[in-house]
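S., here's the first fold you wanted:
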Amino acid sequence: MLAGAAAIVAAPAVAGTHSGKPQKKTVNVADNYYSPKKLTVNLRSRITWKWTEEAADVHDVKLVSGPKGVKKFQTEPGSAGFTYSKTLSKPGTYKFLCTFHEEDNMRMTIVVRH
């Protein structure tokens, strides 16, 4: 009986465990690179890609792979001053690239924690 009661008391603490509050993070889009190249955030964090003044060339952000069930997306092409925001609502690894500079390895990864 006592063991069962202890399990019931412990259950809410386990069920409520999560990595933290959603965050707001900025990724700079510059000529032929994203900064940072790798980012780890909490679930439901809002990511804003911001094309820096250095971004004289046209760039985009395309989700090439993500957690199962996540719909792939691609931004409009942009340059200096352009921004795009997206909330990442599923845990897992998201891989992005610039379709204009794929050969220059303009890629980034965002890991979303539970």
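And the second, which I think is the more interesting of the pair:
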Amino acid sequence: MIGKTKTSIFYGWVIVAAGFVILMIAWGLLYSYGVFFENLSKEFGWSRTMVSGAYSVFMVLHCALYPVVGMLNDKYGPRKSSLFCAILMSSGFALMSYISAPWQLYALYGVVIGSGISFVYIPITSTVTHWFEKRRGMALGIVTAGVGMGTMTLLPFAQFLISNFGWRSSYLIIAIFPLIIILPVSRLLRLNPSEKGLLPYGSGEIASNRTDNSLASTRNFTLREAVKERNFWILFTIGAFSFLAVQLIMVHLKTNITDVGISPMTAATILGTVGGASLLGRIAVGGASDRIGRKQAYFIALFLMAIMMVWLLEARQPWQFFVFSAIFGFGYGGCVPLPAAMIGDWFGAESHGRILGVLSLSGMVAGIGPIIAGYIYDVKGSYDLAFIIAAVMLFMAMCLSLAIKAPHGPKITLAERFF
């Protein structure tokens, strides 16, 4: 295998393992906001719209930073990005334990923590894309499964801390994790295989025997060239619609569950199940996309999410919420590695961070999901309308996925001729 030494495993898999751990800690802690949500609302008497707003500020700001972060990662590499992530997230969580006013919540969670998290996802996924040509979908599925593992384990852990030490002390405790885990693990990262004297995994192998309709070009697109492609904007719209539903769920699902009389620990575990199932979805769908095609895999994942949003409207018992979390989480996880893989397939690796960063601006649209849901609840006393809106957007995203077709580059694969 090209790029593999005789005495050790291919170093790209070390990159994948390190990225998995970093994403597990960073995003697991970030998604704990849904666990703290009810405590913040009750402690200060803040409306759900008010508390949701801080998360929406985070979503808009960190996505707005993605193009800059992608450019910086292409130039300076993921180790420096991880340093900024660890420092900003640790500082933000520590200071969250002292908040007493809405502006402090918005400044710390929305700006400080939001800025910190922006320095981790794009650098990690873009770096993995550099290391893999063959099995790219599988590698991205595994590394992004770290988000699912973090959600599954750290959300119930956060609820345990809150139940035993209170929410303020809990923020102080979790503030330690980025410094003691993300910083040392990030030292293993390298942006390009050439830094280790290697080539990307599968470099030079011919993909003409694949059933994937994703590989269209052998050249590297610039950002300017990529944004002229119709499919770039299809992916952008799908991302905005699908992750609006995801962010709505991650902020409000636990509170929605406790509203029907289910205990906070059970509700936190159900929310964590979204992450656990997404772990499986990222690996299974990411790997399957290498065989059946990115478009087909995307459609399946979006379909599962859409159907489960309809299911949620009638869920009242713990088992019903667990079913929702398992299937919705699997579909959500399946969606995550596909855009990064498609960009690598279609546009090459040279400007991958820049292109993925601009594509991820779709998260700014998704960021309105939590605050819309909070407002709907404050006005109507129910999340039902918010869930209906999310379901409609997921069905729209599912239909858009059918329009995906790899853009034409200098070389057209055999599979491309049939899609």
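Why I say that: The two ends are 30 Å apart (CA to CA). DSSP finds 19 helices and no strands in the chain.

Talk tomorrow,
H.
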